């Protein structure tokens, strides 16, 4: 039996999409796994975008690391995948697998989106008899694996309807210090809105760009590294670059007025990507050559639904909700789900999944977080001890 983990933290440094706690989340989970669950450092692959000594969490790198872990698994192995960063939703292709007609997606640091079908296709490679846990601390994380069996979902008992908690409600959560000014506690959604992408692109191009103007560029730039299911979502139609992203970005944007150029610069993997996008749209020769690849109009069939026994998904929220990035003054930022989950687990590291998520939801009520963490897996898996 072997233990393996892939931990991803995307802070999107230097960009308008920047978050503060996602990289910290990755190391928080790593610390828990090594201290409480018998993982060694060699068992854990960390992908972050704030330190060049680590592998960058681009879409291609995340897929590669996760595929290597899943495809090489053997019965009895224990696998963990943790993603902390932005999440979003895109319109599905109208199949019957998505009740809300939307596919959930995680946002790597380079914005090479991984939709839920990408994740299912990779997870389906896991050998029978493997314990696989996916912790998704991002917006729209519910139903990320489209499990047919869900043990905990819906609103929390005693929950609040407000989108994000009032800063004052987090004081006790942060240790109850009277020296903390509630107004200095920052809480930000981990939802990436398409007008933000357009705003950053506006700066790269030096002119105002509306959300509709970026429809063609992203898919063409990533070429074969883009989601294999993007053409199912409408990417790769006729018209070359002009048709490559029209369906996806249109679904993300829902139209809207042009975004104003931001005043701050981009950076990191996210900024680098948008620089390529700007060059492709603006006509610079080298990036345009890279972007000349037109995704195929055909695509592999959607993966079959996962067996309820194939993996356990713990989400930061329901599919239509957002998750919080918390920034306490003078302290380390974190994701609301990851911090609460680790806090609960340190009190009872071997509690069952259903017991653990139930306690996490209760703690969320106390902190007045509106997000509703869910547990998506079979009943049998829900009763197992956490990552054992």
From TrEMBL:
Residues 286-297 have a biased composition (Low complexity). One of its GO terms (biological process) is proteolysis. GO terms for cellular component: cytoplasm. Pfam families: Peptidase_C14 (PF00656). Residues 252-271, 282-308 are annotated as: Disordered. Residues 3-380 form the Peptidase C14 caspase domain. One of its GO terms (molecular function) is cysteine-type endopeptidase activity. It comes from the Eukaryota. Belongs to the peptidase C14B family. PANTHER family: METACASPASE-1 (PTHR48104:SF30), METACASPASE-4 (PTHR48104). This is Peptidase C14 caspase domain-containing protein. It comes from Rhodosorus marinus.
